[in-house]
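Page header: ASSEMBLY MODEL / two components / 578 residues total.
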Amino acid sequence: MNGRKIAIWANYVVLGVIGIIMAFPFLWMIFSSLKPAGEIISFPPTLFPANPTLENYAKAVSMIKVFRLYGNSFFITVTYTILTVFLNCILGYIFGKFNFKFKNIIFVVLLATLVVPKEVYVIPLYLLMDSFSLIDSFISVIIPFAFSAYGVFLVRQFVYGIPDELISAGRVDGCSETGIFFRIALPLMKPVISALLIYYFLYQWNDFLWPLVMLNSEKKFTIAIGLANFVGEHFSNYGVSLAGASFSILPVVIVFLIFQKHIISGLALTGLKG
Amino acid sequence: MSTQHRSRMKAKHKMTPLTLTKRKFLLCWLIPILAGFAVFRVWPLIYGFYISFFDWDILSKTHTFLGVTNYVKELTHPLFKVMLWNTSYFAFATTVLSLVVSLVIALMLNKTTRFKGFFRTLFYLPNMTSLIAVSIVWMWLYQPQYGLLNSILRQIGLPTISWLKSPDTAMISIVIMSVWRNIGFPIIVLLAGLQSIPQEYYEAAKVTGAKPSQVFFYITLPLMKPVILFVTVTSLMEGFKVFQQIYIMTGGGPLNSTTVFAYRIFQLGFAQLKFGRAASLAFILFGFVLVLTIIQLRIGRSKD
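Prediction written out in full:
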């Protein structure tokens, strides 16, 4: 049985090496960000900072206005996520439990919108927002793409599994249709909801093209755009650039570490059903 | 759910008529939401298509009808072949590399009993972080004078590479970074797919004395086909739309070696303010992606 044991150990070792390769760029980013300006460009390069300092982070806060960018990103992302997941859920519920004219055609049209690349939307949507005088506003960043059909299919699949008896029981008890949705169906949809919440949160936090096009005032920039602008001019300020990058990664890592299980199972769900 | 149960449920669906309360519910929710989709998802497509036939000047608000001039100008533009090559190269290189690497890793992970969750998390981490942060980190790694990669090469005594600064190496540098970032998702999906293969198949194979390579090619791979197809199609589609890394890391250069469709669309629209031209290129891109996806799905289906 020794050959097998060696094979199993080798498996772990290789995985460990790959793991280090995967994690290394981020570790390098953090180590570099803690080095003073002189040490960061020294040769041969040091792995751990010899004189660790937080000056890069302090400069990131003042030069890139990280906390304001955080605020903007959080507001946009959270609002978008809640709105989009809600729309997906109620739409999926309707398509799953109701019958109406043109239902199938409408569903196909909705799914078709998923195939179209965002770039095709950006130009006309920009002009549309301009006609509403909504350029450079958070609303214009959040609303258009909140109408995303991505989760509707998943929710509908899930809703098929909700027994009709539960819903009829609600009707018999005198509950309104809207009440049935909020009080009976929605609580049952928790797995799909959590998968979608995480998916849309990550999507919007990292979104770049649309906020870039829509937002003009510096004070409204998301963290992705603020960082991109800073790096465009001041990348040679390596320590601060890397500290800024660390800032942008931090919330995501925290969210991920807390919600790991949900995230992974949610992803597997979308992959297997897709 | 058994087929009996499912057909019973479907029958129940068809029997329930639209009562007044149900109509009110749909009116209250479905109609406004569909209206939203119409305004923000359907109308822009029509509008965008319309614009692509004009010289759409948004400053002077004059719109000159051009027919298909925009399309012709873009398709015959000297940059078109370059963009086509760059974008295709990026999309195919990242897809193939990601698929191979993540499949290998998923197979290895499937054999582990402990730490599976830990590794899955670790490998997925780059995928979740913002692309801008990843781009900054890799621009730093690729930095010719002070970056880690060249420093290591220098220490070993090998010649340094220009990475993002040379037309020959810029695109492949971006590919490498993108593969590093992207494999997390395929790993999770492929692993889930591998884990859904019933053990009985493998045991049956053992009984018949099949070699590991035979097991892989005749059992594992065919059963994984739908998942692999899903990963490939989505990866390719995303690859054709690549924008952020190019915008931040190379700005299309050096010497247009990294100019891709999405980048030029952005340049045309928001740097040169040629909205009509940008729209036409966007639809050309859409056409490509659509054709490619259809081809892929056909290939996937025919292999059955």
